[in-house]
Amino acid sequence: MWTTANACAVECPKPKVLESRDVILKITGSTVCGSDLHLLHGTVVELQKGDILGHEFCGIVDDMGKDVKGLNKGDRVVASFQIACGDCYFCKQKLSSQCEKTNSNTIENAMYGGRTAGMFGYSHFTGGFAGGQAEYTRVPYGDVNLLKIPDDVPDEKALYLSDVLATSWNCVVDTKVYDGDIVAVWGAGPIGQMAADFAFMNGARRVIVIDCNWRLDYIKEKYPKVETIDFTQLKGVKGGVVGKLKEMCDGRGPDVALECVAGEYPKGWLHAAEMALGLETDTSEIINEMIESVRNFGRVGVTGVYVGTSLKYTPISLCVGADLLLTRSTRPGYTNHFNIGSLMERGIRLIGNGQAPVHLYWDDLLKKIQTGEIEPLKMVTHRVRVEDLDEVYYKFEKKEDHMQKVYVETRFSAPACAGSPALTRYTDRPLNT
Ligand SMILES: NC(=O)c1ccc[n+]([C@@H]2O[C@H](COP(=O)([O-])OP(=O)(O)OC[C@H]3O[C@@H](n4cnc5c(N)ncnc54)[C@H](O)[C@@H]3O)[C@@H](O)[C@H]2O)c1
Ligand SMILES: [Zn+2]
Ligand SMILES: [Zn+2]
Prior knowledge:
With 433 residues, the protein is an alpha/beta fold.
């Protein structure tokens, strides 16, 4: 079967049922996520040669173990990006992203003092499970980690229940947006866009999105109520993004700030230099902008990934010596110049939203797709083939062709649904039939 291993198209054997609650899924749709870029950049460590990526996918039940309940061969289903057991302390509360049983890797325990659930296609850091950017994949605890897709919802809409929709929803409701709030969102990628949409749905009076490229125009077109700030166009604005937000929000600032970017993208030379020297793993620039711009007692939620480790800078950090005896895997991450004073004195609530617990939200979000309240296709710009995925990764990374959210089809996909972009090929490789 075709798949994308380490962002290279390769052929590999079809997976088999290994455990009695496994489901083998014939993949009909997957996508590339901003989180996959952290693998491409080496920020999320422990990716090994041959690993199959992809943590958002839907498909058709092809085979299953004898103990899978509630599913039949031929069912259309979508998978959560996390693998949950359904039974442990966290799973019983539907906090599936923190399942205690499915991630056998202990690096997170050493780095973070606890670990997340196992995840599909997200390196050995999260258990080393094969992902869904492929033609088939194995879903452990299939009866827990797969949601049936009703007939009135096409794959192109259901797919994003895997991650984006649940993550953006969690970002908003976990940070808490109340009626009448002004919400600022950093990052106009798919997560930021959906968070903006969901902030309105949860009562926000105004939503302001901050980014630096064409995505701001895209967001203005699709979500006309959203206001935008291009942070590269603030020369002459005292205080930059913080100053601009104060100016736009009665001098006081927004009530809520949502981080939908990541810690690996330094903005100024100081953080770029510190990161290059291995003196810092994640920049504090966005977090500081958020803390400083919200009103006193405002809320700041962090959904963009801050991993606290950096593989690519390790040789240099070994040279500067500070962490000489610690391996990169067990060294806790750090961020410099964090504005602790503003946080404490002004009573800012800083909330790590965590890897989103998809199972807590996906039933309700599916209903909202059915009623049309949520329209996932709004963020989808391209339809591509699994055979071309290695090229797509680099297009996606560079935001070329105005690529934002893709739907990856395989030979098993149904024809594109109404409203779906037409297929774009990025290689002349023959299609698998
Ligand atoms: N917590 C979770 O469960 C979860 C799940 C999925 C994704 N994520 C994370 O959410 C983040 C966003 O995901 P995405 O798919 O939308 O990513 P993306 O890479 O498509 O979008 C990120 C956007 O941030 C913008 N950006 C870069 N620097 C910025 C800055 N200083 N200020 C404002 N904007 C800036 C980029 O131009 C880009 O448009 C990623 O870090 C991703 O890993 C978290
Ligand atoms: Zn993702
Ligand atoms: Zn569990």
